[in-house]
Amino acid sequence: MTTTALRTADVPIAVAATGARIPVIGYGTGGGGRVTAETVAAALACGYRHIDTARKYGTEPQVGAGLKAGGVPRDEIFLTTKVSHENLAPADFERSTMESLETLGTDYVDLLMVHWPLPTMDLQATMGALAEMKRRGFARYIGVANFNATLLEEAVRFCPEPLSALQVEFHPFLDQSRMQALCRKLGLVFVSYCPLARGRVLDAPVLAEIAAAHGRTPSQVALRYIIQHEGVAAIPGSGNPERIAENLAAATFTLSEDEMARIAALARPDGRLVSPAGRAPDWAA
Fold this sequence. Notes:
The chain is of the alpha/beta class and 285 residues long. It has helices at 37-45, 60-70, 90-104, 123-135, 149-158, 177-186, 205-214, 218-227, 241-248, 257-264, and strands at 13-15, 21-23, 27-28, 50-52, 78-83, 109-114, 139-145, 165-169, 189-193, 232-234. Helices cover 36% and strands 15% of the residues. Strands 3-4-5-6-7-8-9-10 form an eight-stranded parallel sheet. The protein has a two-stranded antiparallel sheet with strand order 1-2. The chain is globular and about 55 Å long. The N and C termini lie far apart (41 Å). The mean pLDDT is 96.
């Protein structure tokens, strides 16, 4: 395995119908205390150009400081943040976006997303608020997270501006082929969060066997499995600079069709890890 810094050109790009070009491995910052300005700067130093955060994570200050310390030109970074479920009304949506931009120390984000849907939300009004942020230049592209198929299609229909991405949970233990197919149909990039299944990939013998055959780690194999799907990106997180670099190196090898099939067979009906009561939609809808 390697921890050598990668050139930006070494990391493949997933492209949305809108033209959004998203590096297929990003640095996820949903890990709370393990994320610091130093870990963000370390991610940039080893080659990451896709950084994912959210207002709800509480990591926007660290990301902003890390971007400043990293010294990478802003236009070379694909930066994502999200508006939380309690701020989906138009006035609250704008306030949350402005607070995020100020905290991040930037005039715009590359991707602004609705973080979670709510059963009580006015989806048309929320999509209008999201589109308005794009029209005013505060976001280059827009998308949604944690929407099921029905909500995603409704969001696309209601939104005055085209969506570019869907972010949802995906790892070897959760089959997301239906949502991936829908994203391809709609021209969206599918972004996988929780791609290492909160460490559970380390205990899977199939991943260990495939990793040994490639001289890689089980985590790298899990990430490679994810990004080898068409139009799919992943945002693993870590507070360890060596692990951060190892995750990015998942872009530098390829799995065989047989290996992909063996990993896909790990999916199980109870594989979903993130489904908060009161926010999670009916995933089958």
